[in-house]
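Now for a concrete sample entry.
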Amino acid sequence: MILWYQPLLREFFRRAFVRDNQGTVSEVLIEAETLIQSYFIGLLLEFAIIATLDSIGLLILGIDYAILLGIIGALLNVIPSSEGSPRSHYP
């Protein structure tokens, strides 16, 4: 949803700050965009690695629907990463 409104968000942040800080605001927005893209690429890479390793392990064990279970296992492994660990909210 955020990607859909990306041009509007950029324009909002540019207008929210004084014109003297436009360069800094643009720089921070670019850095934030790069950071978020890197995070999602890392999540996708983790998903692919976990799905592959789970599927191979289940195939070696002779489990039916090994590939499907490997993908489900990788999905369940990635979901907590996108929401943050519950332990991170406690001291």
About this structure: The helical segments are 6-16, 22-60, 66-83. The two ends are 32 Å apart (CA to CA). Residues 14 and 26 are 7 Å apart (CA to CA).
